[in-house]
Fold Dimethyl sulfone monooxygenase SfnG.
Amino acid sequence: MSTSPSPIADLESPLKFAYWVPNVSGGLVVSTIEQRTSWDFDYNKKLARIAENSGFEYALTQTRYAASYGADKQHEATSFSLALLGATERLNIISAVHPGMWHPGVLAKFIITADHISGGRSAVNIVSGWLKDEFTKFGLDWLEHDERYVRTAEFIDILRGLWTETDFSYQGDYYNIDGFTLNPPPLDIAGRAHPEVFFGGNSTAAQAAAGKTADWYFSNGRSLEGFQENIAGVVASAAAGRRAPKPPKFGLNGFVIARDTEAEATETLREIIAKAHRPAVEGFSEAVKEAGQSTKDGKGMWADSTFEDMVQYNDGFRSKLIGTPEQIAERIIEFKKIGVNLMLTCYLHFQEEVEAFGRDILPIVREMEADLARKNGTELNTDLLPVTNLEGALR
Ligand SMILES: Cc1cc2nc3c(=O)[nH]c(=O)nc-3n(C[C@H](O)[C@H](O)[C@H](O)COP(=O)(O)O)c2cc1C
């Protein structure tokens, strides 16, 4: 596919790259295939340093409290993120957070502290939840699907209010804030109003809430056409009433299998699926019925995922970042053309493959981005490219 770029594609800005922090056990695919990936802190510390030296600007930690789909051990997201910030120099760490588990004022304060400690590298991914047991077994309310997004939108409004205003007050259905000032405020950094707010979700309700409130909209893996639909939904909601200063940018998940030949990459995908841990994947597909499938229009996360899709539990195979480095770079450029600003990536063997991604794929992406900009009468702003230090990557 080679179409002209969408009006919302940002051809001047280099794409940004992120990876999923493996802070839960079992790797990022529910398969017995060998995964040289560990969920422990030492592994993750080294991985974060490799990533920031390889051209990655963001890492996303996952929030998970209960065993599910094989991820039977988990490190808590905000504390793990803070430790990774301490271990790195340039990487932005996005911590996933559930409204309903946190009070927005407590989180706003926590993130301000992380912002000061890290020189402005702390961000949040607000996720509305799908694992009912995590909430009900903690004795917390489990809200109906679309109502979760009403709470999420209030939560983000309050984070933003507490980060940018003094004497901030808010009366919502879920939270009330009465004339609160958080001191110190977040760091004053050019180009941002406060720590960045990412938002993960695929359903119509998720798109509507993200369009109004988020800095970044994050999606599970999707096809080009599928993600175009999500983008259209978010853009329409943003146009209808935006509470945040700028429209959201777009991030998309993809599981990367880069090999010397397309046949090898496809064979690895086949092996991952052939060795899927069937009971865990089936248990997972039962639990996720609380997500997209429970909505009125039946759209949303995992709503139309097949068994094979769910072996990567964020539908990462659907984005098709599978093939040779050139093929993957081409695919990434197609996503840039429809409006993607950030690729969120995951791998079988994180340390080796994040480094290989920076070495083998990113240079091709950068060349293609520069070409794409020129062909459309503009220039790629190379001042915005992240610093890389591949020699230092494996130290
Ligand atoms: C990029 C991304 C990351 C996510 N991370 C988490 C997470 O760490 N923990 C979690 O419980 N849910 C996570 N979710 C899922 C959301 O909690 C929730 O299930 C999803 O928004 C429901 O989607 P739906 O509204 O499309 O049904 C994530 C979603 C996306 C897109």
